Amino acid sequence: MVSKGSKVWIGLFRDSWKWSDGSDSSFRHWKPTQPNNNGGVQSCGAAVYKEGQSWTDRWFDWNCNDRHPFVCSSVKKTQQVVRVKLTPKDQNMVLTDIVVQEAILQQIKKELRGKGMPDDIKLIWKEQLNEKIFHKEENKDSQKKERKDVMTKLEF
What we know:
The chain is 11% helix and 24% strand. By secondary structure, it is an alpha+beta fold.
C-alpha cells in the first residue's frame, strides 16, 4: 500500500515523544543526529519504506504538516475475568476500603508473578451493576446462615 522510498508517519509526536494513542515512547530508534527539529517545525516521527516489507533501520523527525501515509501496529491486549472466593482471616476487615482492596490486589499480583506471569500485568476490581465489588455468600452447609465476603470478579 506504500510505494518504495515513501516517507510514512509512525504515529510519534514531539510531545515528550508520545505515540498517537497518548502512550509514552520509551523505545527510541532514531537515525544518528535525529531528531534534529530542523527549522523548529519537525514534530512528527517518520520512517522510509524501502521495498517489500522492509523499512529503514532508523527513524527521523519531519514536519507534521507534510502529508504522508500512516502506519501503525498494535499489541493485542488480553483480558480475563476471574471469580475468586475470599474469606478474610480478620472478620473486622473492611473489604470496601480502597487500601485493603489494593493490598489484596498486590498480594494476588505477587502470587501470579511467582507462577510466571509478567511484571506488567494490570489487576483491577470489576464493579457489578450495583457498583459493588463484593457480595455476601450464604453458607448452605450450615444450619445457621453464615455469610462470607466474596469477591465477585477480578479482572486482569
